[in-house]
TrEMBL record, chain A:
Its EC number is 7.6.2.9. The keyword Glycoprotein does not apply. This is Quaternary amine transport ATP-binding protein. The lineage of its organism: Bacteria, Pseudomonadati, Pseudomonadota, Alphaproteobacteria, Rhodobacterales. The complex is probably composed of two ATP-binding proteins (TmoW), two transmembrane proteins (TmoV) and a solute-binding protein (TmoX). PROSITE patterns: ABC_TRANSPORTER_1, ABC_TRANSPORTER_2. NCBIfam families: proV (TIGR01186). It is a peripheral membrane protein. It holds the Pfam family ABC_tran. It is an enzyme of class 7 (translocase). It catalyses: a quaternary ammonium(out) + ATP + H2O = a quaternary ammonium(in) + ADP + phosphate + H(+). Its main location: membrane. Keywords: ATP-binding, Cell inner membrane, Cell membrane, Membrane, Nucleotide-binding, Transport. The keyword Transport applies. It comes from Donghicola tyrosinivorans.
UniProtKB/TrEMBL annotation, chain B:
GO terms for biological process: choline transport; glycine betaine transport. GO terms for molecular function: amine transmembrane transporter activity; carnitine transmembrane transporter activity. It is found in: Cell membrane. Residues 100-279 form the ABC transmembrane type-1 domain. The chain crosses the membrane at residues 57-73, 80-97, 103-126, 147-174, 226-245, 257-275. The lineage of its organism: Bacteria, Pseudomonadati, Pseudomonadota, Alphaproteobacteria, Rhodobacterales. InterPro entries: MetI-like (IPR000515), MetI-like_sf (IPR035906). It holds the Pfam family BPD_transp_1. This is Glycine betaine/proline transport system permease protein. It is a multi-pass membrane protein. GO terms for cellular component: ATP-binding cassette (ABC) transporter complex.
Length: 337, 294
């Protein structure tokens, strides 16, 4: 796989009066409830290490209070960690001066927020150009680039509206365009679509996937919604009580949940649309019948499987190389979990 | 028993000694630095006199035009513009034009001074809780202490005249602008500030590009209040030598001229209403972006 763009190493965040003092206790294994009871400190992030691959969408999932929004704010240091390391392109973010940090926030990362975070006193075009303005780009250039991204997210004609005049979905398009306009390589999306209603959310996910096909950004996407995580994530990490409990691709999470908590999460989703054939292909037994692409999801593979002579198909990877065979029975078993 | 009947106060001798000591110290300070202070305030005095003369020397039709134009620029309302011009016409007809110009001059200068000093103090206050804890009680004192009490040291230092009057007006009128600037900046949505931070905004860019613009409606309410309070000080300021509508009011009090007092008092009210309506509608127009439904 591709190399890491962002590395999080043994990150701890403790909220309270003297976080450094209780850090040792946490490292010695004290849990969140005990810590709160005995010291009055809240454990935000607990020994999280995560390698985020370049040009992929890394989803971080968890319920509210799991520390996912805290985690994403460490990457551009909107929150200072109590202990640990964060590297962007191998550079240590935590040792940077204010000025270097501002440079990273201007050029390398950009962010989309759950509550949009738009500047209410500026028009749409001025909001989209905000990041460039902060960098000191000339106003002609800002206008040109802002217009480009306004068109790309489908807001042409709304340039001179104020955010307050737009619907939630449109406001978040402004937020997305603002984040894209700086051409930053890393896009931090904090529950970016959670405040939108389901249909609009689906639309926004489609826009994001479409743009990603072409832009290949490194996206860190926070969500509490498993369907969203499975749809968008090349990789998914699951947080609970500030600790990372599982990390992997969508099928890995669905097929081999690390514990009951995750199994609970995944039991209601539509497995047929998540699990791909390549996850089932049993290596070894050669097959000389018809072949099917390994990235096909189960739901789409059932019909071809049932029509195959012995209800069996060979599975290939993206390059056409043979991975193994899958039977209809296997596919149905995988569907039921 | 005697102990409980009367509060055991310090003796008369001790007390008068203490008071004298304070008075003497202040007089000494006044003798030593009074002149320097006067020199310090000299540019302000000259500006005030220049502005007053300008208003008095300008032919009245031009003043009416300027009043109308300013009211229109501020409010964009025909009603307010016409009302303002009409009020000035009535003031002129009732022979209060010159006093009104003098009052207008001191109010304008006092307001500008309050804005120039008050907004930076308000910004400072909004940036640190300690600053706020220090400045808030000072503002409380400035607003509640009877004006006559701080008139004493001001007059002792600078004598009778326009500058002490201006200072007295400012002491009374500056708290609202400081308070509301502080409040406005503190009320700016945290999510918006976080977004600004995430895009690498420097503290200076954040202050002038995000915090102050979003605090403007509150800052404007502060300016409005400052103007109103400055106007309400006109009569007291006239006691220490400020020309204007306060002088005839004072004369009316001492001679029981009901009509004279009423006329000049109503002229002050008219000025207050004009300032208030124009600055309020202007403040509202500044937040056009809030009109969109949410």
């Amino acid at each position: 796989m591709s190399q890491s763009k962002v590395q999080i190493k043994n990150l701890y965040k403790i909220f309270g009066k003297t976080p450094k003092k209780v850090l040792a206790q946490v490292k010695a294994g004290m849990g969140k409830p005990e810590l709160l009871e005995q010291t009055g400190h809240v454990l935000g992030i607990q020994n999280v290490s995560l390698d985020i691959p370049e040009k992929r969408i890394q989803v971080v999932m968890g319920l509210s209070g799991s520390g996912k929004s805290t985690l994403i704010r460490h990457i551009n240091r909107l929150i200072e960690p109590t202990d640990g390391q964060i590297l962007i392109d191998g550079e240590d973010v935590l040792s940077m001066s204010d000025k270097q940090l501002r440079e990273v926030r201007r050029k390398k990362t950009s962010m989309v927020f759950q509550k949009f975070g738009l500047l209410p006193h500026r028009k749409v075009a001025e909001n989209v150009g905000y990041g460039l303005e902060v960098q000191g780009v000339s106003s002609d250039e800002i206008a040109k680039r802002a217009q480009h991204w306004i068109d790309r997210v489908g807001l042409t004609g709304y340039e001179n509206h104020y955010p307050g005049q737009l619907s939630g979905g449109m406001q978040q398009r402004v937020g997305l365009a603002r984040a894209l306009a700086t051409d930053a390589e890393i896009l931090l999306m904090d529950e970016a679509f959670s405040a939108l209603d389901p249909l609009i959310r689906y639309d926004m996910q489609s826009i994001l996937l479409e743009l990603q096909d072409e832009l290949h950004k490194t996206i860190i996407f926070i969500t509490h919604d498993l369907d969203e995580a499975l749809r968008l994530g090349d990789k998914i990490a699951i947080l609970r009580d500030g600790a990372l409990i599982q990390e992997g691709t969508a099928p890995q999470i669905v097929l081999t949940p690390a514990d009951d908590y995750i199994a609970d999460f995944t039991k209601d989703i539509n497995r047929g649309k998540v699990i791909r054939l390549k996850a089932l292909a049993a290596a070894g037994s050669p097959y000389d019948g018809a072949m099917i692409d390994g990235s096909t999801v189960l739901a789409d593979a059932l019909l071809p499987l049932s029509q195959a002579p012995d209800q069996r198909l060979g599975v290939t990877d993206a390059n056409g190389a043979y991975l193994g065979a899958v039977t209809l029975t296997q596919a149905i078993a995988a569907l039921q979990g | 028993m005697e102990f409980f009947e009367e509060f055991p106060s310090l003796g008369r001798k001790t007390l008068s000694g203490m008071k004298q000591a304070v008075d003497e110290t202040f007089k000494g300070f006044s003798r030593a630095y009074g002149e320097q202070l006067e020199n310090f305030f000299d540019p302000l005095l000259r500006f005030l006199i220049w502005f007053e003369r300008l208003l008095e020397a300008t032919p009245w039709p031009i003043i009416l035009l300027v009043v109308g134009a300013l009211a229109w620029i501020g409010s964009r309302s025909w009603k307010i513009t016409a009302g303002s011009v009409l009020a000035f016409v009535v003031i002129g007809v009732l022979d209060m034009w010159e006093d009104t110009m003098a009052t207008l001059a001191i109010i304008s200068v006092a307001t500008l001074l309050c804005i120039a000093i008050g907004i930076p103090i308000g910004i400072l206050m909004s940036r640190s809780d300690r600053m706020q804890a220090i400045i808030t009680p000072i503002l409380d004192v400035m607003q509640t202490i009877p004006s006559f009490v701080y008139l004493i040291p001001v007059v002792m230092l600078l004598g009778i005249g326009k500058v002490p009057g201006l200072i007295a007006v400012c002491i009374y009128a500056i708290p609202p602008i400081v308070r509301l600037t502080n409040l406005g900046i503190r009320l700016v949505d945290k999510d918006v500030l976080e977004a600004a931070d995430a895009f690498g905004t420097s503290p200076w860019q954040k202050l002038w590009g995000v915090q102050v613009p979003l605090a403007l409606p509150n800052i404007f309410a502060g300016i409005n209040q400052t103007i109103m309070m400055a106007l309400s000080m006109v009569v007291i300021a006239s006691m220490i030598g400020v020309k204007g509508l306060g002088v005839p009011v004072l004369r009316a009090i001492s001679n029981q001229y009901l009509a004279l007092g009423l006329m000049n008092g109503l002229a002050i009210v008219a000025l207050a209403i004009i300032f208030d309506r124009v600055s309020q509608t202007y403040g509202k127009r500044l937040q056009a972006y809030r009109q969109g439904g949410k």
